[in-house]
């Protein structure tokens, strides 16, 4: 790990100022991803601005819904009574990710900002356009089993690793941020970005902006939902493909559908056309397969990840079936219902 | 307390250390730490509490699990300077004279082979029982999934944790008091 200066921020304003004052500074909260990346020399900050003492560690109800402070640990969100009552999809996704130890340390804001687990990004002995822009992408012709099938570019085929973010995408959360130019709200779909020709940028956050909270809309998402995660082992592994689904039903007919995929792209993947086609249709496997076909028509697999296209197709059908039936995937009993 | 360290570039001024107060196994310690010192390295290298193990050093194996302010975390991914004011319990702080019920259950069920992951397994199991969320064997496995055992003693580890959960609840609570 490189040597660095350490600053402990007492207020949000102090934190924003500390970052603006030092181009080599980075925020640190739980540190579960940043410290790991520093041990691999992937991140080499000149200064860490510790934000863990900021008053952003509460879950509060407000007019617009439920506000998750940026510093609320993942475990606290996962077991929060209100989250479980109204947004069990989010609790389920959180419990599908990481380990109890990591969920105790990792924060809501940090989870949004975790980096890809692409092997080449982590290995400073290889080129990587995300780590060193312009150096190349060995994943495209190398080992790319875990990589993207949707929305990738000629510079980067990395995936976003978070489970929580897939649920937040399906829930249409809003990220509140503050920076040198004040506060702004970012709809979740616009928070993460596709790699394009700037794969070094994972999000649309501007330099010096800090995440204050993640706001969940004031709706009841507790009946027809599921988080279905498929991976190489039953626990403590990143998703090869995951599906977050939330439906509103009129009997057996779908009134509205929200569907986000994890493990397949540089950001949680939504497809408005597919969601629109589900509206007003009977909740049958045929309907769900049609939606999957729309989503996966754009899929562009590489040498080792073509299996993800069929895996995603089946996961979408299974996830929508679970959500329609009101039988969400358990995160302890791993049998897929 | 702080040891001299060279900066990686081999140049510049000696690193600044920062005062930190930690209560480790009930004992308050006034320390000075370099900001890049992990809690794991502080415990092992400065405080000689070598029961907490360094396995992968990347938060993947759980050998470094300790309990900080009542919650189990990977001490390898925690910067000590960020834990100023915290209460830390390590494997050395569990027993007071006799074995902690979880330690005794690991012995009784032969829940290890080489033993390297065991302090982390035990700290994780102690926290799991305190959390009170795991009851069935499936749930114990899921809630212990952050602790890898490369010898493969998993079935006996689940036996040990299940035994404490089902049969030793009262003695566990007495030990915790």
Provide structural commentary.
The complex is a heterodimer of chains A (337) and B (177). By secondary structure, chain A is of the alpha+beta class. Among the domains of chain A are: 1-49, 2-Layer Sandwich (Uridine Diphospho-n-acetylenolpyruvylglucosamine Reductase, domain 2), CATH 3.30.43; 224-323, Enolase-like, domain 1 (2-Layer Sandwich). Chain A has helices spanning 12-21, 34-39, 74-79, 81-86, 88-96, 100-105, 108-112, 119-122, 164-170, 272-278, 285-296, 307-325, and strands at residues 5-8, 25-28, 47-50, 59-62, 65-69, 174-179, 182-187, 210-217, 224-230, 241-250, 253-262. In chain A, α5 (88-96) packs antiparallel against α9 (164-170), α10 (272-278) packs antiparallel against α11 and α11 packs antiparallel against α12. Chain A starts with a strand and ends in a 12-residue tail after the last helix. With 177 residues, chain B is α+β, with helices and mostly antiparallel strands. Chain B has 2 domains: 18-93, Ubiquitin-like (UB roll); 101-176, DNA polymerase, domain 1 (Orthogonal Bundle). Chain B contains 6 helices and 5 strands, in the order ββαβββααααα. In chain B, β1 (18-24) and β2 (27-33) form a beta hairpin. In chain B, α2 crosses α5. Chain B is elongated. Mean pLDDT of chain B is 90; it is low at 1-11. Chain A binds chain B through residues 1-6, 28, 31-32, 35-36, 38-39, 48, 50, 52, 73, 75, 79, 98-102, 104-105, 235-236, 331-334, and chain B through 5, 7-8, 15-16, 18, 34-36, 38, 57-59, 62, 65, 71-74, 77-79, 81-82, 124, 127-128, 131, 133, 136, 138-139, 141-143, 145-147.
């Amino acid at each position: 790990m490189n040597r660095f200066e350490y600053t402990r921020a007492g207020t949000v304003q102090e934190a924003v100022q500390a970052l603006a004052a030092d181009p080599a500074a980075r925020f640190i909260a739980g540190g579960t991803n940043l410290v790991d990346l520093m041990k691999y020399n992937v991140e080499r900050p000149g200064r860490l601005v510790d934000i863990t003492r900021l008053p952003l560690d509460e879950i509060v109800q407000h007019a617009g819904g439920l506000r998750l402070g940026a510093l609320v640990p993942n475990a606290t969100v996962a077991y929060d009574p209100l989250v479980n009552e109204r947004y069990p999809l989010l609790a389920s996704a959180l419990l599908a990710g990481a380990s109890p130890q990591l969920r105790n340390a990792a924060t809501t804001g940090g989870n949004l900002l975790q980096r890809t687990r692409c092997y080449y990004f982590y290995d400073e002995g290889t080129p990587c356009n995300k780590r060193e822009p312009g150096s190349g992408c060995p994943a495209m012709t190398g080992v790319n089993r875990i990589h993207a099938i949707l929305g990738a570019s000629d510079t980067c085929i990395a995936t976003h690793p978070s489970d929580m973010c897939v649920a937040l995408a399906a829930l249409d959360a809003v990220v509140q941020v503050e920076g040198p130019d004040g506060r702004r709200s970012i709809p979740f779909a616009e928070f993460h970005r596709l790699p394009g020709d700037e794969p070094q940028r994972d999000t649309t956050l501007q330099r010096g902006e800090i995440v204050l909270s993640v706001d969940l809309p004031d709706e009841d998402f507790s009946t027809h939902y599921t988080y279905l995660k498929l991976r190489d082992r039953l626990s403590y592994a990143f998703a090869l493909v995951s599906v977050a689904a939330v439906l509103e039903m009129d009997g057996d007919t779908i009134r509205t559908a929200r569907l986000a995929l994890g493990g397949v792209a540089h950001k949680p993947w939504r497809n408005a056309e597919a969601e629109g086609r589900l509206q007003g249709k009977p909740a049958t496997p045929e309907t769900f397969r049609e939606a999957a076909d729309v989503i996966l028509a754009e899929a562009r697999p590489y040498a080792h990840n073509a299996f993800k296209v069929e895996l995603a197709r089946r996961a979408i059908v299974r996830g929508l079936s679970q959500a329609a039936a009101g039988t969400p995937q358990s995160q302890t009993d791993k049998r897929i219902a | 307390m702080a040891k001299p360290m060279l900066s990686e570039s081999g140049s510049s001024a000696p690193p600044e250390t920062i005062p930190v107060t930690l209560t480790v196994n009930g004992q308050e310690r006034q320390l000075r730490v370099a900001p890049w010192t992990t809690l794991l390295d502080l415990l092992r290298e400065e405080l000689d509490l070598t029961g907490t193990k360094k396995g992968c050093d990347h938060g993947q194996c759980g050998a470094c699990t300790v309990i900080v302010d009542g919650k189990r975390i990977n001490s390898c991914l925690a910067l000590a300077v960020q834990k100023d004011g915290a209460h830390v319990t390590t494997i050395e702080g569990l027993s007071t004279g006799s074995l902690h019920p979880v330690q005794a259950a690991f012995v009784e069920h032969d829940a290890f082979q080489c033993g390297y992951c065991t302090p982390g397994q035990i700290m994780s199991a102690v926290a799991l029982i305190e959390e009170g969320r795991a009851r069935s064997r499936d749930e114990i496995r899921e809630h212990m999934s952050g602790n890898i055992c490369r010898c493969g003693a998993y079935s006996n580890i689940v036996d040990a944790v299940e035994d404490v959960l089902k049969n030793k609840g009262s003695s566990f609570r007495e030990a915790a008091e």
